[in-house]
Queue: 2 jobs
Job 1
Amino acid sequence: METENEDELLDTVMEGCRLPVKMSGTDEWPLAEIISIKDGKKQFYVHYIDYNKRLDEWVSRERIDLTKLQPPVKREAKKGNRPPSPDASRRNQSGRKRKILHGAAAESQQAKASRQVAKLHGMPMSDMGACLPDGTDDSMKDLPMDVDEPGGAATADALPATPQQNLRKGGSMVQHTGHDDTVTRIKNVQCVELGQHRIQPWYFSPYPQEWCNLPCIYLCEFCLKFCKCRTSLVRHREKCTLYYPPGNEIYRKDDISFFECDGRKCRQYAQNLCLLAKLFLDHKTLYYDTDPFLFYVMTKFDDKGFHLVGYFSKEKESSEDYNVACILTLPPYQRKGYGKLLIEFSYELSKFEAKTGTPEKPLSDLGLLSYRSYWSDAILEILAEQVKKGNPTNPPLICINEICEMTSIRKDDVISTLQHHNLIHYYKGQYVLSLNKEVIDTHLRSMSKRKIRIDAKCLHWTPRDWSKRGKW
């Protein structure tokens, strides 16, 4: 009798339903939403409510609790925590639509991605399926490839925000009736091997379907070409002449190097880098127009070559003086200080350009934490030095604009960081900065953990005025 009841409940399960699901590696049963169903309702792709989408997974019937099934309820999409900035909206109206991992295209992004990858690797379209995850209907293959927009570090300036752009990590499928978001919410790559590391992807990336059906995609760690098996990779490495990113090395200190790669001159490498990055950046739409961007690739050197650690991209011409469009540290190198090193390097370039910079807004949750940590360190480092120069009877004087000039951090970011730490106060008709011993001690502990820093003396780079060039 109990089995019959369960079968009846199972018949009512559909995409958008919510129910408790046993999370992998734990004994917890958090509430989850069903995103997709395959194998005759034997496998369910679920998103855990209030958890990051990188934890989404396929689960079997035994891991779902049908007794607490909640039917899908249609409701208006909630606005994101950080809506697109007015600056981005102004650029949207101006008609600029080119973006690497951002925005939406008028034609089907799914079809475009497939054509671009096919062209990139010399494959006929007949041999290549749309980049859909297993268990997805064939009828969905021509749907657009829109993804929630606020990006891995910085994002959107292509088109006005849509409901799916506002659906962040807790976004419900039933809030948006189209299926285009469903396709890209399901991880389609099981594993990638890059050098000595095997990495489980976090999100969808439009690799060709025949690669997505493989247990692992093998990447050349120098040119980032993807292969179906290790034998193919070995044959490729015998022919590949690259042992470093195909650009100009503009920085080297110890075993850390930065290479500047032009998205137009190194188009194939830039597109391969975007495909790899999309596996770990959620709210992005992969867009193959890399020409308007520069890619700054950070590597670690050993006797085998220069190994990819992370990168950031920036526009050649940015009307808003953004110094970062996308930023990523690969998972094997995270929590080791490399992310903050990438951010520091982007501001070092801004210092060479003699202007303040900021990442594209809105920032993702992880991006905001990383940037706020860097901003705090940079600002408190200057304030601590000023305190040493002053004395109790004659406190040091410094204004916000001076902090901006010394750090190249935009004024809005300086003020928001000071407010976050409750360091700026209104006193007797003017704003004053107040530092206490606890704040300084916390800063010193944070700085002591930063073993690697950017040395401006090791940066050999000359800023270019791209607006004066007829063609990139």
Job 2
Amino acid sequence: PRKRGQKKKSDKVAMTRKIGFKGVTVANINERKGLLKCKKKHNLQSCRKCEGCQKKDCGTCIFCLDRPKFGGNNIMKQKCVERVCNNPTVTQCPDCKWEVPK
């Protein structure tokens, strides 16, 4: 039996809702972060260019209904369920240096 809060070992694809990126594995995320050499911790960000980022708000999911333009109070402050990025990018700072694999 698993302890509370532990994930299954067979879960190779990261949960879409938790990370917010579609079809991205945990290994893929670590690989992208490994190319960036910096002392600071950097997070992944949506690319804002792919098909998933360019989708319009559906207006029917719980996150859309929470927005003021659909009559909500904007308490959750989350993006639409259908707006899932396919190509996440790593945030950068002035101290960042990319290590290109040979």
